[in-house]
From TrEMBL:
PANTHER family for the chain: TYPE IV INOSITOL POLYPHOSPHATE 5-PHOSPHATASE 9, TYPE IV INOSITOL POLYPHOSPHATE 5-PHOSPHATASE 9-LIKE
InterPro entries: Endo/exonu/phosph_ase_sf (IPR036691), IP5P_plant (IPR045849), IPPc (IPR000300)
Gene that this polypeptide is encoded by: LOC107419480
Protein name: Type IV inositol polyphosphate 5-phosphatase 9 isoform X2
Upper classification of the organism: Eukaryota, Viridiplantae, Streptophyta, Embryophyta, Tracheophyta
Keyword Hydrolase among record annotations: yes
Pfam families: Exo_endo_phos2
Length: 370
């Protein structure tokens, strides 16, 4: 049974006093291309910006993955195999708790629903613990928090929306999670939208986003006062392979990529164009992009697919910023937006760091009503 927050339990003749605390949130998204992670996969490159000396360490980590399994008929139509998501969660666990011996221990508790790696010492107290995770075919999201925050996390919940083949299969769609931190609600949407670079494909991506916003739904809670839809939450962050492309002929895109003309390419970025036209994500924010396109790379290479003139690709796909992190909410301030360089898949991972203001109840005072 979900716990009631302090605000939900105070009598009517008691006033509560609130202050604002600030927490740092790491949000990362990566389309891993159906590749199972090797046991020795190092994801510190993905996390490194959040742990630099110039910035405070993050309190919450949100990992969103797409295509954790190949999107074939067996995986889309068959029984969901959770072994790969378990393996990814073990990697997250090991990476976040890698320096336990050096860190200050702030809490204790058992990690639920996470499958340990062999090199984890269970006699040590974990600095980060998983509060919720969920897989829908290839889309996977996992949320980790510092142990001392666990008593202040309430009402975690999940909502899945499948909008792939036939408009109802899970090869495309979203997995959203929400929770309350103190008295502030957060929602994180991990999605994989419609693919393709043809005319009209952007409209299908817009339609997927609209469907996710309209169909995602969360429990109202025992007092029926919790946010129900995505946009009802105080702070919302949307991450994933949104699949928006660059609206230019492929040969021009490749030429500009080779010259590293990122600003010219971004002027023709489909997502930015659709935002400006008001066709999708009205009122949402995205930090300035100062990194190369995240898609599509040759396997285990720094060379974009189609830019290697020695190869003859079977299916042409021009580079694009498919992998994005956008947000809305008055309590959020984005500090970083960049990418990692792992060559595991044909995408590069992206990451964002946010400072989030949270409403915290600091005390109570009773009063006499007349």
């Amino acid at each position: 049974m979900a716990k009631l927050s302090q605000q939900h339990m105070i009598p009517k003749n008691v006033l509560s006093y609130h202050e604002k605390d600030t927490y740092r949130i790491f949000v990362g998204s990566w389309n891993v291309g159906g590749v199972s992670p090797p046991d020795n996969l190092d994801i510190q490159d993905w996390l490194i910006s959040s742990q630099s000396n110039n910035n405070p360490a993050s309190d919450i980590f949100v990992f969103g993955l797409q295509e954790i399994v190949p999107l074939n008929a067996g995986n889309v139509l068959g029984y969901e195999n959770g072994k790969i998501s378990q393996k990814w969660n073990s990697l997250f666990r090991a990476a976040l708790n890698k320096k336990l011996a050096e860190d200050k221990v702030v809490g204790v508790g058992d990690l639920k629903k996470v499958y340990p790696l062999k090199d984890i010492d269970h006699n040590q107290v974990e600095e980060f613990q998983c509060i919720i995770h969920k897989q829908m075919v290839g889309v996977y999201i996992s949320v980790w928090v510092r142990s001392h925050l666990l008593p202040y996390i309430n009402h975690p919940s999940v909502s899945c929306v499948a909008c792939g083949l036939l408009g109802c299969l899970g090869n495309k769609g979203s997995v959203s999670v929400r929770f309350m931190l103190h008295e502030t609600s957060f929602c994180f949407v991990c999605s994989h939208l419609a693919s393709g670079g043809k005319e009209g494909d952007a409209k299908q991506r817009n339609a997927n986003a609209a469907e996710i916003l309209s169909r995602s739904s969360f429990p109202r809670g025992p007092l029926h006062n919790l946010p129900r839809q995505i946009l009802d939450h105080n702070n919302v962050i949307w991450l994933g392979d949104l699949n928006y492309r660059i609206h230019l002929p492929d040969y021009i895109t490749w030429s500009l990529v080779e010259k590293k003309e990122w600003s010219v390419l971004l002027e023709n970025d489909e997502l930015k164009m659709e935002l400006m036209k008001g066709h999708v994500f009205q009122g949402w924010n995205e930090e300035e992009i100062n990194f190369p396109p995240t898609y599509k790379y040759n396997p285990n290479s720094e060379v974009y697919f189609g830019c290697d003139h020695k190869r003859k690709p079977q299916k042409i796909r021009a580079p694009a910023w498919c992998d994005r992190i956008i947000w809305c909410g008055k309590g959020l301030k984005q500090d970083q937006y960049n990418r990692g360089e792992s060559r595991l898949s044909d995408h590069r991972p992206v990451r964002a760091i946010f400072a989030a203001e949270v409403d915290v109840c600091k005390g109570f005072e009773s009063f006499q009503s007349f």
